[in-house]
Amino acid sequence: xxxxxxxxxxxxxxxxxxxxxxxxxxxxxxxxxxxxxxxxxxxxxxxxxxxxxxxxxxxxxxxxxxxxxxxxxxxxxxxxxxxxxxxxxxxxxx
Length: 94
Known about the structure:
Layout: H1 3-16, H2 18-26, H3 33-43, H4 50-67, H5 84-90
Helix pairs in contact: 1-2
């Protein structure tokens, strides 16, 4: 299973379980939040590692950029769209 699919599955799980959601949200207050997040993911049985998160974010951003105006110089800037760590929390904080 790819990293994005794992994150989607984990997000659904965290929406249903407040303790898991709080545990994941707490990683944002750590000195190294992405490392803490990946450690919690692994403890929960989701093999998500920092490099996987970074690479998947870059691939996601590249595909989004290609889909907007062909990805050329005139494509809109998609600020922060490659940060899957932050995108993960968008729906959890509601």
